[in-house]
Specification:
Helix content: under 10%
Strand order of the largest sheet: 1-5-4-7-2
Number of domains: 3
Largest sheet: 5 strands, antiparallel
Distance between the termini: 48 Å
Oligomer: single chain
Length: about 350
C-alpha cells in the first residue's frame, strides 16, 4: 500500500470542495467511540483519487484532505480527525470511484449516500432484534417514524424518534415480539439510517423504493434547473407565480440562445418542500428552497456560484452569507407539472 495522506486542515467553503463536479458524500452515524473507529478506503480505479473527512462544528465544516493511490487501500483512525464521538461525512471527489467502510472492533458498515426521508430496510427470516443508527441531515430538529412489519405485511410495532440537531445521531436497540421482515422509515426531513441484525451485526442498507411524495400548489408553475449534460451534483426545482418571470423562464426553454443564469434567494425548507434532486437515485428532497427569483443574468458574482448539492452540504454557511445562489453552469431546462414535482418522476 502506497497511499498518501495530506495533513492539511481546511475550514469553510474551500477550493477542495469546489473541484470535481461529480463529487459524492457518504454519511457515518456516530455509532462507535472514535478511539475504536477506523475508516477503510478502497480505490479500485487506475487513477489516484482525492477524498475528505468532514466534521460539522457550530455551522462550520472542518475538512481534512486525503489522497489515495490507484489500485490501493488505506485506513484512517477516528482519532485523526474527530474531536469527540459524533456523526460525520466523507466526500469523494469523483462519484463511484471509492468504497468506504467504517470499522469498529468486530463491526463494519459499508457506507452509503442515501438521504431520502423515506426508506425501507429488509431483513431475513427469524429476525427479532435490531440495532439502529439514525443521523439527522437537516439543520433543525427532525422527527423520524420507524415501523416494523412482519412477513404478512402486518404492523408489529411503531417507534417515534426525535433528532434535535444537525448531524445528531440516535442509536437504539429494538426487540420485536415476532419476526420482522422490514423496517420502514419516514422522517420529516433528510436523514440517513443504518439497521443491523444478528449476533454478528450484519447490515441492512437503506433502500428508497420510490421517490417520496411532496406537496405542491396548483396555483404555481414549476421549473427544473439543471446543467445541459448529466450532473452528479444535482438539479433543483423552482416554484414561480410571477407571470413576467414565468414568461421569461419559458422563453429560455424555447430558445436556448436566451439562456441565462438564475439569480435567486433561498431559505431553509420547513419540512418537506417542493425542491428535490431529480438526478439523484432516491430523488431526495433538499433542505432548502428558492423563495424568490431576483433575475436572469448573463453574468453573476463568484460568491454565489456552486451547485445544489454543495448548497445542501454547506447550507448554514450559505444562509449566513445572505442566502443567494447563481450557479453558473445551471439553466432552466424544462417546465414541470405539479404531478412530476410531487411524484419525483419525469414524464417522457
Amino acid at each position: 500500500m502506497t497511499s498518501k495522506a495530506k495533513n492539511l486542515l481546511v475550514v469553510g467553503f474551500c477550493l477542495f470542495s469546489s473541484i470535481g463536479y461529480s463529487a459524492e458524500l457518504f454519511y457515518v452515524p456516530g455509532f462507535c467511540p472514535r478511539e475504536s473507529l477506523k475508516i477503510l478506503v478502497q480505490n479500485k480505479s487506475a487513477e489516484p483519487e482525492k477524498w475528505w473527512t468532514q466534521t460539522h462544528e457550530n455551522g462550520v465544516i472542518k475538512e481534512r484532505y486525503q489522497e489515495i493511490d490507484a489500485k490501493s487501500e488505506m485506513k484512517l483512525a477516528g482519532t485523526a480527525f474527530l474531536p469527540d464521538d459524533r456523526g460525520f461525512s466523507l466526500k469523494a471527489a469523483n462519484a463511484g470511484a471509492l468504497k468506504f467502510t467504517a470499522l469498529c472492533e468486530d463491526q463494519k458498515i459499508l457506507l452509503g449516500s442515501v438521504t431520502s426521508p423515506q426508506v425501507t430496510h429488509y431483513l431475513p427470516a427469524d429476525t427479532f432484534a435490531l440495532k439502529l443508527s439514525l443521523l439527522n441531515l437537516y439543520l433543525n430538529s427532525n422527527k423520524v417514524t420507524l415501523k416494523a412489519f412482519d412477513f404478512n405485511g402486518a404492523l408489529i410495532e411503531e417507534k417515534l424518534v426525535s433528532l434535535g440537531k444537525h448531524y445528531e445521531t440516535q442509536n437504539l436497540k429494538w426487540f420485536l415480539k415476532r419476526a420482522v421482515a422490514r423496517i420502514e422509515v419516514v422522517a420529516s426531513a433528510r436523514v440517513h439510517t443504518e439497521v443491523f441484525f444478528g449476533d454478528d451485526l450484519r447490515q441492512s442498507p437503506p433502500v428508497a423504493l420510490s421517490p417520496m411524495s411532496l406537496p405542491t400548489d396548483e396555483t404555481k408553475k414549476y421549473f427544473l434547473i439543471s446543467t445541459k449534460g448529466p450532473s452528479e451534483n444535482g438539479s433543483f426545482v423552482i416554484a414561480m407565480d410571477d407571470e413576467e418571470v414565468i414568461s421569461t423562464a419559458r422563453e429560455q426553454i424555447r430558445n436556448p440562445e436566451l439562456e441565462k443564469i438564475v439569480v435567486a434567494r433561498i431559505a431553509i425548507g420547513t419540512g418537506l418542500g417542493i425542491n428535490r434532486n431529480f438526478q439523484s437515485r432516491d430523488k431526495s428532497p433538499y433542505s432548502w428552497t428558492v423563495t424568490h427569483v431576483d433575475s436572469f443574468g448573463d453574468f453573476a458574482h463568484l460568491d454565489c456560484d456552486g451547485s445544489p448539492d454543495l448548497v445542501e452540504e454547506r447550507l448554514q454557511q450559505r444562509l449566513s452569507e445572505g442566502g443567494r445562489i447563481c450557479f453558473w453552469r445551471y439553466r432552466v431546462v424544462r417546465e414541470l407539472t405539479p404531478v412530476e414535482v410531487s411524484s419525483g418522476l419525469l414524464a417522457p
